[in-house]
Amino acid sequence: MRQTRDGVGRPRSLPDRKRLLAKQERGVSRRYVTQVRVRWSDLDAFRHVNNAKTVTLLEEARVDWLFAEAARHGVERLTQGIVVARLEIDYKRPIGMDLPVTVSMGLTKLGQASMTVDYIVSVAGTIAATALSVLVPVDPVTFKPRRLDDRERAFLHQYLHAPAQPMDLLPPEPAVS
Question: What range defines the domain where residue 48 resides?
Answer without folding.
Answer: 33-166
